[in-house]
Amino acid sequence: MRRTQIYLSTEQWETLHALSFRTHQSMSDLIRSALDRKYLRPGPSNFGAGMRAAFGIWKDRKDIGDTAAYVRALRKGTRMGRLLRLRRKPHA
Asked: What is the pTM assigned to this prediction?
């Protein structure tokens, strides 16, 4: 870790100071966390942009059929059947 010095406005300092008091974190920890979220780790804004870009990309495909019907067919009746089989043949 390296030491550095920054200048904060009075409003920035007071905000950090109050948040530090409420969260029991040092002002340095709060600044490091903010820098990590903003510049080092992909945040929700990047995730949201990716989701928006991918939304609806398969909407015009004709080769995949009705997905709701496909899922219903996969799930149809299997749970009760599994429960009945377990009741008849308990695990050893």
From this structure: 0.46
